[in-house]
């Protein structure tokens, strides 16, 4: 399929960039190559896009990056410089790249201000935030259902742009279940569990009752939620628990969330997402450089779905959600 749009594809600033970010995958033997592909993202990705029928890629900073900076001022400055760098790269390739804002969630007011600048001045189409944020202490973790973030979410709703919640590993002091099994960390398992739980916190907090027009995007075909959301609601109800939300969590999943195919090129998982969410809430993505444009396109272009759904998932949904004008 030609004209696809991909939107979980990660760049890294050049080595000369002043802020030295933490990256989640440095423990991998393949990290030097992954880092090279992130730093050289725009040239390398453009070649791969042309080979695999991708017209536009919405790019974002890899994980955890801004979210792992402990000082709010440093985070705000790093986010601004990163977003300016991304804007300059987008301008070098008109019509081929769009941008997700990196945000200093250490300070919700600063995050709202930077997102507003990115949308109104730089033309970015939303934000991608790499999971929870650390603040001051290395073992801290701020999740975005906390009351301090409500003004930020109100700003996101006013701007009418999507917010992509991207994974990161849990804090080191919460990793005992992975001891002796490092292969379960990162994108193999821990990423999905962390991000799905964060998403459930957002749903259960009542956030979407206060901000009903919020649009949250999850990668990897929904981090397992299409297959598990019914049981979450079922067991909450049978246990007699009451969340802070007015409706079952699955209602918010179906009305406020969108998912992408990033890094999850599996027919059965796509079928589950289609059954729970419908084709209008699924979008194509790769998860470059950790996955490859060629493998993603080979799967998606031939997976057994209707041509109408392929067009919706591959292109039309992203055009509509992000208000793209190719």
Q: Calculate the mean pLDDT score and round it.
A: 94
Strand portion: 5-15%
Class by alpha and beta content? alpha/beta
CATH level-two architecture: Alpha-Beta Barrel
What is the approximate shape? globular
Number of individual domains: 1
Distance linking N and C termini: 16 Å
The biggest sheet amounts to: 8 strands, parallel
Strands across the major sheet, in which order?
Answer: 1-2-3-4-7-8-9-10
How many H/I helices? 12
Helix content: 40-55%
| Element-level helix/strand string | EHHEHEHEEEHEHHEHHEHEHH
Overall radius of gyration: 19 Å
- Count of individual beta strands: 10
| CATH fold-level topology | TIM Barrel
CATH superfamily: Metal-dependent hydrolases
Low-confidence segments:
none
Question: What does this molecule look like?
Answer:
The structure is a single chain. With 326 residues, the chain is α/β, with parallel strands linked by helices. It has one domain: Alpha-Beta Barrel (TIM Barrel), CATH 3.20.20.140. It contains 12 helices and 10 strands. The chain has an 8-stranded parallel β-sheet with strand order 1-2-3-4-7-8-9-10. It has a two-stranded antiparallel sheet with strand order 5-6. Helix 3 links the parallel strand 2 and strand 3. The mean pLDDT is 94.
């Amino acid at each position: 399929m030609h004209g696809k749009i991909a939107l979980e594809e990660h760049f890294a600033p050049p080595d000369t960039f002043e802020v030295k970010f933490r990256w989640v995958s440095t423990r991998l033997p393949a990290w030097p190559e992954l880092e090279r592909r992130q730093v050289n993202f725009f040239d390398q990705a453009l070649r791969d896009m042309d080979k695999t029928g991708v017209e536009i890629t919405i790019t974002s900073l890899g994980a955890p990056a801004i979210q792992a900076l402990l000082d709010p001022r440093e985070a705000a400055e790093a986010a601004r410089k990163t977003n300016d760098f991304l804007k300059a790269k987008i301008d070098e390739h008109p019509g081929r790249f769009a941008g997700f804002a990196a945000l200093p969630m250490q300070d919700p007011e600063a995050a709202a201000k930077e997102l507003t600048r990115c949308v109104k001045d730089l033309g970015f189409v939303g934000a991608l935030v790499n999971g929870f944020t650390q603040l001051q202490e290395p073992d801290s973790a701020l999740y975005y259902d906390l009351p301090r973030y409500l003004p930020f979410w109100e700003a996101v709703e006013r701007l009418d742009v999507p917010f992509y919640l991207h994974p990161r590993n849990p804090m080191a002091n919460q990793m005992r279940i992975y001891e002796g099994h490092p292969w379960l960390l990162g994108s193999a398992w821990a990423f999905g569990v962390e991000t799905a739980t964060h998403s459930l916190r957002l749903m259960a907090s009542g956030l979407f009752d206060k901000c009903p027009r919020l649009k949250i995007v999850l990668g990897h075909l929904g981090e397992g939620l299409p297959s598990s959301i019914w049981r979450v609601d079922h067991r909450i109800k049978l246990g007699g628990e009451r969340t802070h939300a007015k409706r079952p969590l699955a209602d918010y999943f179906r009305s406020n969330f969108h998912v992408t195919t990033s890094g999850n090129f599996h027919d059965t998982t796509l079928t589950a997402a289609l059954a729970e969410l419908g084709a209008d809430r699924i979008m194509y993505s790769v998860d470059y450089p950790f996955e490859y444009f060629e493998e993603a396109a080979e799967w998606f272009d031939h997976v057994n779905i209707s041509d109408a759904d392929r067009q919706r998932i591959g292109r039309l949904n992203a055009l509509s959600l992000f208000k793209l004008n190719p």
